[in-house]
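Hello,

Our lab assistant flagged a job as stuck in the queue for most of the afternoon. It eventually completed. Since we weren't sure the result was trustworthy after the delay, we are filing this so someone can double-check. Below is the sequence as submitted and the structure that was eventually returned. Let us know if re-running is recommended.
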Amino acid sequence: MAEVQHSQIKSKLLELIAPLVDKSDIPAKSGADREAHVLSRSMAAAAIKMLAEVDDATAVNAIVDGGKDNGIDAIHYDAQSKTLFLVQSKWSNSHAGSIASGEVLKFLQGVRDLVSLKKGRFNEKIQKRWNLIEDALKRLTSVRLILAYPGSGKIDSDIQDKIDDFIKSQNDTSELFFFLPITQRELFQHFVHEAAPPQINLTVRLTHYGLVESPLRAVYGQVSAADVAEWYRSHGNHLFAGNIRNFLGSSEVNTAIGDTLKADANYFWYYNNGITIIAEDLKRQAVGGSDRSVGMFECKNVTIVNGAQTVGTIGRTLSGDESPAFLQARIIVVDDPDSLLGKRITRASNTQNKIDARNFVALDSEQERIRTELLIDKVNYEYREGEPLESTVDGFEFIEAVTALACASDEMSYVALSKGYVGGLYADITTAPYKALFNPTTSSKRMWSLVQLTRRIDKVVKTLSDQSSPTDRGIVVHGNRFVMHCILRQIGKVNDLSKSDGINDPAIETAVKEVLSGVGKVIESTYPDAYLAPLFKNVKKCTDIRSRYEGA
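-- returned structure --
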């Protein structure tokens, strides 16, 4: 069976993808060697197509294989999900084989060099994409490391340990890097699905359910989160074929969903909005009779049109079937999910005003006190989301304020939060860190002074930073909050930060130069291969960098 599938994969790669692959730079080789090289590139494109869900042209355009590729054969960034895909692929004529250990180690080193912005270690193909790569590294919330090979063999255990260690080293603050092998099984299934796109049929178990007979048949009730996780493990993003967007991966909202699922599972139904499913047909099994406490429903050709983030997060978070969490689900029968009616349901299900932790800040009386005090000085402070700033007076808004206060704090965890998850600073307005930043002792004048000072510092940093240095660029982008924190500490040694109008420009410029230079030296000596995005979200490492810099 493995030998047959290997042969079929080869045929499909040569038929569907290889004709689109650029072969102009492949060295003159024997026919078999040249074909293997073309198949390796084609397999890299297939991996991008499968995981990023893009068309053939986009997948082929991601290929960067060639001399001095540093082990990376394809690069693709999905802006919607903020996911960077890095692929190494290696064709082998062995249907039972795996991928060579040396190739994997070379790939891991290439990833280290890429995330630490060592541009000179890569070929022209990758360097031409460098602006895109740097931009992606500023914005991404997920990095997928993909090894693609056509055999059925497993990766050597020692090499798998090295992969796991690398992933762990990068994920010390949050899950950012993920490893995904694309083997014979995944490649074969992909080409099977290409030939006949899968129709998803689900047996849905609902508790405490209700029925609607007109104008459309529908059922609603509670579904187990463990069941939902199994749907996602079995079908992945195919579940969202009719949705306006797929699962976006890591985000502030999805992180909050996952945290609730792990820490407050019994209350998940109360906190979550639930999911909406469109099905071509719906039949209730006879189990349970007329009792509506439990019902089993056979759903044909389903698509989840609202709740992709909830379903994806549940699928990622729950590894087994042990969870007390439930969520609300409604299943609507539409004969043709692609019809105008189906599209209207999809659009309406996804049109709603988002309410997040930011909105609850308005419930804190301290915010109105600060706003009123500043208004007397003709400074407009807006803490309610959606309220425009008055153009006739100086002004600022809540996010700028909370970020400035966090950076001016001596508590490194607040500084790290302001970069990694600013919403964490105000996720709960009844406790720290929010209450440590906003309380009766919070001075409105100091807060405005800090905002004005951080604005001035930002401008000087942009002017004085060395844009030719990858380390400096990385520090300015990924470490901007940490750098701001260090600069404020430096300036605060001899100046009153609550009276920033008395701090002259030379003092700011001196502090900026000292911090950028000092932090840069610490990074290059202590964390030379680190991806700076997670580094500056790590409280322990940020504290270490600050101690080394200030103690130098």
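-- support follow-up --
The delay was a queue issue, not a problem with the job. The result is valid. Residues 281 and 300 are 5 Å apart (CA to CA). The first strand starts at residue 74 and ends at 78.
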